[in-house]
Amino acid sequence: MAKASVDWDTVVPFFIWQFLIPLGAGWAQTVLYSIFIRAGDPKPQPGSPRFMRHRRQILMAVYVAYFAFTIYEVDFDLQRASNAYNDLGVPIDVDESGLQSRFRKLTVRFHPDKIRPGVDRDRANDYYVHLKHARDIILDPAKRFAYDRFGPDILRQCQQCLTTKEFTDNALLSSVGTYGALLVFLLGANALGFMKDGAYWRYLALLAVATFEARTAMRPDHPPFLTAWLNPWMATLHLRPPYLPFQVSAIIKKASISAAQFLGLLIPLYRDDPQRPTKPNDDSEEARHQQLDRLEHVIRDSALDASRLLDLESIPFRDNEKAKTELRDALKKYMVQNVVHQEREVRNAIGQSIVRRRAGVPHGAQGTR
Question: Name one Pfam family in it (predicted).
Fold first, then answer.
């Protein structure tokens, strides 16, 4: 049952990010145009720069709002699920004497033998057993260490674990499998050409979350930003009970998944033309093939035009075979001479001959000598 819940928690946000938000943004843009643009005034046409700018702004607003909602949602679920410290009404740094004193007061109120008539005895008994279980977790140093860092699931997954090392090894092994699978998935997707937008930030976020979990699991104290900043700030503002490390880890995981989705959708919005892929580089193989194709078309069109001009110029000679033969010979001779005269050696020889023939002639003089 828990596995199905985790799958739905992953699939549903992905479906919302990828499909529902773009669809809803299109509807919202249509509604906003009908509200803020007067009847008869022209509306921005789809694909126009103004239309695309408005669409980017609407998508950005919806993405940011949904990202904030996902963080609030996971925090709300954590508060609703509560934890052993909140159920017992003790601070997260309570010692054994303080815990026993508080539990004696709770026993007076909630022990099944001390409940008032008319109260459901089965529910009262279950609640008292729950309080005893929470007390036993906090009193056991190994279970308390594991509970604070990995949450209540670790106690169900590793019921045979007795020491802190066993709990930690079990949790780290599970994390290595999870992050290893994510890393293989990202590498495979990038190798196939998918999810390239924001790939660097995805790897950085994966490394940061894994490092935070490893640090939390292997250190005897809670993260400094939690004890020195976040929890005191929450206590001062009376916003919520203090965070435990496993709760912060759950929020960071959810935030990193949402941020990866957000970043992958945000980067294409700020390209020059989000509806078209990035143009290939001028030096790419595809660009060279396109240039060769264009050159081939130009040559073919030029040859066709030259053939048409030649046919047009030879119309007067069409019915005169003798004139046609003379024209053909003249053109052939002209082409041969033109090709010969274009040779570098021939041009040099002609130039040298002219220079020798006009040796000693004053500058600017005209004549054939």
Answer: DnaJ
Identify the pLDDT of residue 144.
92
In one-letter notation, the amino acid at residue 24 is: G
Predicted structure pTM score: 0.64
Q: What is the DSSP letter of 16?
A: I
In DSSP notation, 53-85 reads HHHHHHHHHHHHHHHHHHHHHHHHHHHHH--HH
Task: State the Cα–Cα distance between residues 228 and 232, nearest whole angstrom.
Answer: 7
Residue 368 binned pLDDT confidence (cut-offs 50, 70, 90): low
- Residue 123 near residue 115 (C-beta atoms within 8 A): no
Measured at the CA of 206, the angle between CA 203 and CA 212, to 5 degrees, comes to 140
Q: What is the mean pLDDT of the chain?
A: 82
Cα of first residue to Cα of last residue in the chain, in angstroms, is 110
Residue showing tokens 């996971």: 74
Q: What letters, b where the CB count within 10 A reaches 16 and e where it falls short, cover 211-236?
A: ebbeebbeeeebbeebbeeebeeeee
The DSSP letter of residue 17 is I
CA distance 142 to 164: 5
Q: Could you tell me the two tokens for 236?
A: 């001062």
Residue type, 273: D
pLDDT tens across 188-213, in order?
A: 988 888 777 778 888 888 898 899 99
How far apart CA 155 and CA 152 sit, in angstroms, is 6
CB 76 within 8 A of CB 285: no
What is the DSSP-derived secondary structure letter of residue 89? Answer: T
Domain residue limits, the chain: 15-78, 315-352
Tell me the torsion sign for CA atoms 184, 190, 193, 198: positive
Q: Which amino acid is at 59?
A: L
- The residue type of 226 is L
